[in-house]
Amino acid sequence: MKKLLFIFVxxxxxxxxSDDDNGGDDKKMPIENLVIPTGMQTAGENVILAGNGFAKxxxxxxxxxxxxxxxxxxxxxxxxxxxxxxxxxxxEGKYMVILTQGGKTYELGEVTFETKIVVGEGxxxxxxxxxxxxxxxxxxxxxxGKALGEVLFTLDxxxxxxxxxxxxxHGKIYYKTILVYYDEETKTMVNEHAVYYYDTKTRQGDNLDxxxxxxxxxxxTDGEKLYALIxxxxxxxxxxxxVSSTGSETVLHTYSNIIGLSFNRLYTIGGTxxxxxxxxxxxxxxxxxxxxxxxxFGFSMTQDEVAKKYSNQSAVYSYQKVGxxxxxxxxxxxxxxxxxxxxxxxxxxDAASWESVKNNPTPVTKLDYDxxxxxxxxxSHLIYGMSDEGYSxxxxxxxxNSVFAKxxxxxxxxxxxIPE
Length: 420
Description:
five-stranded antiparallel β-sheet; eight-stranded mixed β-sheet; Neuraminidase; Immunoglobulin-like; 2 helices; mainly beta; disordered N terminus
């Protein structure tokens, strides 16, 4: 009896082991020499998995990191040594690649995607355009399509000059104006400075009634707040201030020893500076009456720290930021009488790296014409600049440092963008 029981136990154990072995064989990865791409993949494009053993009728799905949802993708090619599938247009970040084959599923490995950047399609740009009555109108501009669009509003005084215009992330436009006229009573020329706002959602606007508008030489925004740079004649200090919707001012930082020159007026090309909450940059022009000095001005928005570089030539500085990279457009008059210009384009990551290479910079590219009033359009992924002394628009592609063909005779007197 004991012998029969022992034999029974052995047989049962053998059968169990046999079942386990069969199950293990069934779950074994069917793909040999599998290679998953490790580099960043572009969403919406094909992904190639190298390996032997992919079945013609297999299925591929993706599961985003931290998600349980499976996304079906189209398998476009299966060969003896590879499988190709098309990734979703909106894929972003890490995804697990899951294979279904022979009734079983297998996790092949992770692939990382970045959103596909389509350059040159769409626009969030707006321009200053003179209408038939010589009033300045603010209208949509499709740079790549070379067309003017809807007029948002018109400045009802043809004598007004716009000395800077920016827009925040909530559809509110801020612009500074200068009105120059002759006062008959005092027999003097008068310059009236003001900063206005216009809300594109409510289609209403008004004067901010900011007391220091006359001292302001440059406007900027990080998308949430309106900032301004102000300076007094006779002082070597420049102050960064924030301005509220009611015109109240808060001094954030004061930067000393910036100018070192007496001046009649400070101004910037385009009337604005670029900032991101940490740093700000502007192309500063110092009008001394008999001559104009040019300075690239970089500053910290969190501390009283500043970096600068003066130009020894007739140069104009414009700045823009794309992602984590800043761009400086340094436009030099080669022969100003003949209208011959050259623009060197530099890239850097912060104020420290900008200052460290200022004495021996290496441009990412050079343009054989002027490029000023730079603005970045996050819809088309292009940086626009005014050229031919303001009559043309040039599109610079920061993805590969190339330029598109000029749009000539645009009718625009300046550009800005309204973030979507």
